[in-house]
Write a structure and sequence with these properties.
The structure is a single chain. The chain folds into two domains: 132 residues, no CATH class; 74 residues, no CATH class. The radius of gyration is 22 Å and the shape is elongated. Helix content is 39%, strand content 30%. It has seven helices and eight strands. A hairpin with a 2-residue loop joins strand 4 and strand 5. The protein is of the alpha+beta class and 216 residues long. Helix 4 runs antiparallel to helix 6.
Amino acid sequence: MTYVYDIILNWSSEEYFDFFEWELNDDIEHIKRIPFFKVSTNLFNDFINYDFQISKEILDKIYNMTEIYTNNKIEVINYGALFSDGIRVLAIEFNEEGKTLFRSGLLLDEENDVLMLSNKVVETSITINKLEKKKLQPFMTRYEKEVSHLLKIEIQDCYNKGNIDKLKYLYYECFGKNQEDIKTIYQQLLESIDNRLSNKNNKLYEVIKLSYQNKG
């Protein structure tokens, strides 16, 4: 078994974040030791794009092999491993059934060290069962994804609750014109939240944020 030692991970149940987007309240852990596997690029792409279930053979190999530093003592993660295709690196935590729970990228210097290690490691053939495909937004920053998510929730909530006046107000602030057809308002507001936030989206976000501040 090959191991990587002394790295920092930032676990996320959704899409994992690049190191420059990490925040202080993230689920960050200092890893003492974690099993390492080199895999094919095709398999690594599946690791990123799908929730999946890993084979029992690998699950048994990694059981209790990941150690973390916590409050001056060492604890274990039951099922954790680090994977690389020689180009990218990804840490994954699994549940007892081998299904993905959390993913994490690495800090830049630590990722470079792992990539150097991957050049010396033989590729491991790993069998997985692909489950649900993840809905990724690769061209949006973490902030943009959060804003997009909040905008969709607010617009859908207004529509479902019949808050017509607020929807009309948001539409005017977004597009600079009036619209009376509520279905058109709803659809065009949602369509405006695309793969990259525009100035209209940012303006809409500020309007919604201000409306809740005024309530307070």
